[in-house]
Amino acid sequence: MVEALSFFQWSILALSALCIGMSKTGVQGMMLLIVPYMAMAFGAKDSTGVILPMLCMADVIAVAYYKRIADWRVVAKLLPTAILGFFVALFVDNLIPTHEFHQLMGWTLALALAVMIWSEVFGKENKWMKKWWYSATFGLLGGFTTMIGNAAGPVMSVYLLSMRKGKMEYIGINAWFFLVVNLLKIPLQVFAWDNITWDTFSLNLMMLPIIGIGALVGIRIVKIFPEKSFRRFIQIITILSVALMLIQ
User: Fold this and answer.
1) Quick one: how many helices (H) and strands (E) in the chain?
2) How many angstroms separate the Cα of 68 from the Cα of each of 28, 71, 142, 156?
3) Which of 2, 165, 134, 145 is nearest to 71 (CA)?
4) How many angstroms from the chain centroid is the CA of residue 230?
5) Are the C-beta atoms of residues 215 and 56 closer than 8 Å to each other?
6) At CA 144, angle to CA 47 and CA 55, rounded to 5?
7) What is the mean predicted confidence (pLDDT) over 179-184?
8) Cα–chain-centroid distance for residue 188?
9) How confident is the model at residue 46 (pLDDT cuts 50, 70, 90)?
10) Which regions of 14-139 does DSSP assign to beta strands (E)?
């Protein structure tokens, strides 16, 4: 497979490795850049098999750096229904057209964003987040979207922003949640979708140094961001992500 790659595919792969490293250590919006281009370069489903091991590598780096900065109670609330979301995604994979899936997810997240922004602007408490189904719903959406297209970033952003987590705790929870979720996805994509092979994994290993560079750049950028500016940055990126879902 390595010999068969074009210059365009190598370029997109290297850019994706850099963006994944930056995204996992705090610059969340970088994932917006890579998913459509990886799909263009390798195909929609095949690209998820190329991306996933790189995500796992970056998750390990992020967890190693932010290992003490995470609320495991939040992660534990999300994981059971996230795993359920995997199997829902496998079941509906060939039933829902991609554009309809993006529309459904977009409008769902737009509603959650609207509630979050309304709560902040008017100083109201989001009473939904205390309900048992609130975390369960976001866990299900996160598991479903990450299995379909490694696109759970906006889901987690809306959830953690609505929980009003601080900058470092936000990144720590993200790191642990996605490490566990992405590792659990690997057997499903190897055996159910057959899109992770030794050939694709060899590409991932070649990209590891670039992932590491991206992770270091992400750590440096996050240190520069003041708490309030970081939250605004994540909000803007999340709104852009949702808008992209709605227009696809």
Assistant:
1) 10, 0
2) 20, 9, 23, 19
3) 165
4) 17
5) no
6) 45
7) 91
8) 17
9) confident
10) none
Say how far apart CA 7 and CA 155 lie, in whole Å. Answer: 33
The token pair at 66 is 């932010």
Residue type, 201: F
The whole model's pTM is what? Answer: 0.81
Query: Would you say residue 53 has pLDDT above 90?
Result: yes
Q: Which residues of 129-160 are buried (b: 16+ CB within 10 A; e: fewer)?
A: beeeebbbbbbbbbbbbbbbbbbbbbbbbbbb
The per-residue pLDDT of the chain, averaged, comes to 82
Residue with tokens 């598991």: 143
Residue-wise over 8-32: b if at least 16 C-beta within 10 A, else e? Answer: ebeebbebbbbbbbbbbbbbbbbbb
Distances (CA, A) of 218 to 58, 59, 161, 181: 11, 13, 19, 21
Task: Please compute Rg for the chain using Cα positions.
Answer: 17
Place of tokens 């534990």: 76
Amino acid occupying residue 89: A
User: DSSP string spanning 98-127?
Assistant: HHHHHHHHHHHHHHHHHHHHHHHHTT---G
Q: Is 123 left (phi over 0), alpha (psi -120 to 50) or beta?
A: left
Single-letter amino acid, residue 7 = F
**Residues in the chain, how many?**
248
Q: What is the DSSP letter of 96?
A: S
CA dist 142 and 135 (Å) reads 10
- Quick one: which of 155, 214, 231, 172 has its CA closest to 17? 214
